Amino acid sequence: MRLLALLDGTLADPDAPLVRVDDLGLLRGDGIFETILAVDGKPRELGPHLDRLARSAAMLDMPEPDRAAFERAVRVVLDNWTGGAEVALKAVLTRGIEGGDGTPTGFVMGMEISAKALAQRAEGLAAVTLERGIEPGLAERAPWLLLGAKSLSYAVNMAALREAERRGAAEVVFTTSSGSVLEGPTSTLIAARGRTLTTPPSTLGILPGTTQAALFQAAERAGWTVEVEPIAVDDLYTADGVFLASSVRKITRVHTLDGKSLPDSTALHTTLTTLYESHY
Q1: What domain range is 259 assigned to?
Q2: How many structural domains compose the chain?
Q3: How do residues 85-135 score in pLDDT, each as one tens digit?
Q4: Among 267, 248, 143, which residue's Cα sits nearest to residue 187?
Q5: Where in this chain does the entry annotate a coiled-coil region (predicted)?
Q6: How many other CB atoms are there within 10 angstroms of residue 136's CB atom?
C-alpha cells in the first residue's frame, strides 16, 4: 500500500505524474528528505525529524520548510492508512523547477515496511567497512560539501551499498581514511561495551540520528552510560555489540564485519530493542 499527501493537505494518486521532469530534485538531487516511522498511527520522533529537515534546508540555502504543512500531510497519510501497523513516511522537499520562481516541491509518501527491512531487524546483517573520504574538521572547513545534511543526493550511498552486495554483505560502515568510524549510508552506528553505548560525533560530518537519540535517552533513564565519542574501526571487532540505528529498521545488529564474525550480541540486541520501544 502507498499513500501520497501534498502539503496543502490533499491526497494525490501515487501512480499519477506529480514531479515535473525539470524539477531540480530529479535533475540534480537538489532537495532534502526525512524518513519517519509511524506505529499504530503515531509518528515517532516527528519533531526531531522536522527539526533536521529544517537544518538540512538551511545548509542547502533552501527556504525553511513549512512545518505545519508537513505535519498536516503526515496526519492525512496516517488518517487514511489502511495497511499494516507500521508505515514508513517519506517527507520530501525539492528546490522546485529549474528556472522557476523558487517555489519548492513538497510531499509526504506513506509506504509499507519492506520484508527485507523486517528480516534485517530480526536476524541482523553482515556489513563491510568502506572509506568515505571524510576527515575530522572537514565539515567546518568545507560547508559546501553539505556533510551532515540529509539531501536527495544519495548516489554515493547507493553505490556503497552495491559494493557491499558485491562483497557478500548487506550494509556499509563508512570510515575515515585514518580508521575512524562514521555512519552507515542510511543509519547511525552504535557500539556497546558493558552497559556503555557509544556513537560517533556529528562533528565528523555525519547526520545526527533520531533513532539513536531515542535509544540513548531510554538507555540513560535505565542507568546505562551513553557517549558521543570517536570510535576506531578496530574497536568494533571486540565490542560486545555493533548496531545500526535507523527509523525503519530500528535497532539492527551487525553480526559480521568485513567477513569476520562479531561476538554474539543476540541477547544484547533484545535488550536494546526493548529499551528503544520503552521510549514510546
Answers
A1: 118-278
A2: 2
A3: 999 999 999 999 999 898 999 999 999 999 999 999 999 999 999 999 888
A4: 248
A5: none
A6: 14
